[in-house]
Amino acid sequence: MSAAEPPFQQAIHELYSHHHGWLFAWLRRKLGCAHNAADLAQDTFARILTSRDVVASIREPRAYLSTTARRLVIDRARRKQIEEAYLQELALTAQTLAGFQSPEQILTTLEALEQIAFVLEELSAKQRQAFLLYFLDGLTQAQIATQMSISERMVRKHLMHALLHCSNTLDI
Fold first, then answer.
1. 37 vs 26, 34, 43, 169, CA distance in Å?
2. What does pTM read for this prediction?
3. What averages of pLDDT result for each successive group of 10 residues across the chain (172 residues)?
């Protein structure tokens, strides 16, 4: 380093040459990774370079470097969290889009549901209720019997009649 260098460059050179090794070792212990430690040590000095006025007034270089590095670690962790959240949302969006049906599929589904609704309207109220509780709500025959205040045998009869009616009407 020549004496003709500007004071700022001289201060940076001294700060880097005297404390880079210490900062790197400190970050490596904290992060457990030499590559990340080297990147953050470099980022720390780059950040200090952007704040030109501060370099000359640093009284405790290691405290200043560790504080700057700590803030960069926090910034990096926040960026990583944001990136992970973004990637999760992107994956969910991709799954949702993959589950989308084409307009033709939606129309076919709606037509099938309409046809089933017409067939179910031809059933008695108790048969329709048993059918819907079993196939739509997923209740067991015992739960349906309790809810409708009838026997399980009667629930089975209602379900059999509804299924036979659907089969005969829809030619399944």
1. 8, 5, 10, 73
2. 0.50
3. 69 88 94 93 89 74 91 88 82 71 78 82 90 90 95 95 85 60
